[in-house]
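Our preliminary data section would be incomplete without showing what the modeling component actually yields. Below, a chain of 479 amino acids is followed by its predicted structure, encoded as C-alpha cells that our downstream tools consume directly.
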Amino acid sequence: MSDNTNNFQHNTASDGGTQYNAQGDQYIYEQVLHLFEDGLDALKHMLYPNAVEKFEGFLSTARDGRVDPAEEKIARAHVFAALALLSASPPAYLTPEAVQRINVHLKAAMDVSAGMPVYAQAAVLWAIVKEDYYEADGMPAPAPAASELRRHVGDLTPDEAAPLARHLAPARGGTWRALSARVRELGLEIQQETPFEETRRVEPGRAAAVKKYFTPVPDKKDQVGPAMLLFGAALAAIVGFIIGGFGIVLGLVGAFFLARPGVRGYLAYQEYLRKYAEAMPKVPDPTMDKWLAEDVDYIKKKAARRLRLNARLKQDSGDLVVPEQVVVGFPSSASGANHKIRVRRGDDGDLRANAYDVLILLLTDGLVSSYGCRLDFETGNIVYDHTQEYHYRDIVGISSVSKPMAREISEHVELIGGVTGDFSVAKLFSLSVTSGESLTVETGYSGTVQDANGNVAWAGNAHALNIIQRMVRARHAAS
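Predicted structure:
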C-alpha cells in the first residue's frame, strides 16, 4: 500500500486494486461509515431529523465518488432516510416536498438493490406511501403502481420487516394491512390502530348513567297516606256489610270516597318510584370527569388526523411547539339550537352538561390549526365538527370575556339539581382574526352577582388561554 499522505490515489499495480492512503482516504471512508452508523443509532432512538441528516450525508459523500461503500448499504441508507422522513407519521400528514424526497430515496434504493433483501423493504415502504398519500385521497401516484410493489410484502425477512414495524404509523391502503399480517406472521409487533377509521367505544352502560345524572330527582311522595285511605275504604265496606241493610249503602259510599284519593295517591307513588328509578342512582362527579377526559383524548387524536399533523412535540420529531390545547364549554346560547341542553351542578360546585363544545388548538411554527366539535356526552359521539387554520400574524386577539346572553337561559338550558336560574351572562373563550372571524366557546355562566362556581367542569381552559396568548405574543414579537 502506498505511504503517500496526500488524498485519494488510484494505481494499477500488480494487485490491480485501489489503494487508500492510510491517513487520507481511509480516514474519509471511516468517517462516512460513521455517518451510516450514527444514522442507525439516531433511527433506533427515534431521533428522526438527526437520522435524515446522517443518512443523507452518507449518501452525498458516496455520490461524490470519494468512497465506494457496497450498493446494499447505499440502498439501506436510502430506505432508512425515507423512513426517518416519515417521522412515525402517516404519509398523508407530510408536506408535498417531504413526500417527493421520500419518492427519490425509494426509487434510488430500488434501482441499486435488485435481487437483494432490501429491495422488498423499499418496495413495500414505497407502496404504503403511494396508497396513503396519493391514492387514498384520489391523486395519481408516480409509477410503479402500489399494487405492483405490494407483491413484495411476502418477501420481507424478519430483519427487513422489523424497522418498518417499529417506525411506521398506521396508514390507509391494502399494503399496510398486508404488512401488518406479514409482521404478525414473523412474530413481530406492529401498531394496530388504523387512522381515519377508528370506531368510538365507550364503557357499557355509560349512556344510561349519563342520562340518569341529568334527570331531575322527583319530589318524594308519601306512601303511608294512600295506604291508610285504601285500608279505611276496605274497612268501611266490610263494616257496612256486617251491619247490613242501609249500613251496606253507607259503607260502600264511605269506601268510595276513601278509595278515590287512596288510588290517586297510590298511582302517584308508583309514578314517583318510576321517575326515581330513572334518576337514581347517579354516578359520582369524578366518573363523569373521567369520561369527559377520555372523550377529549379521542377528539385530540381525531383533530390531529383531520388536520394532518403529527401531534408530538418538535423535539420528539413531531409538528407541535406546545402540547395540544383544549377548551371545553357548553353549546352556545347564540346558536339558535331548537333543543335544550341539560346542565347540572356537581357536588364540587362545577357545572356539567349532556353536550359540550370542544375546541382543540394545535400550534405549529407557522400556524394555529383548530378542530372544533359538538360532543354528545351520553354516547361519546361527535355530532358535527369543523376545522380552521390561521397564521399567527392574522390573530388579533385571544381573550376570556363575559357577555350578556343572546337569549334567556331557560330557552337554551334546562338547569338540573339546584342550579340557580338567574344566569344572564356567558363566559367566553375567544380567538379573533383579522377577517372578523372568531372561534368562541362558552366556558361558563354568571348572573347579576359574579358566580365563581358557574364554570364548566374542565380545569384546562385557563391553562389553554395562557399558553395560546404566550405563543401568539411571541410570534408577533418575532415578526
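The chain has three domains: 25-185, 224-279, 285-478. Residues 285-478 form one domain. Preliminary results of this kind motivate Aim 1 of the renewal.
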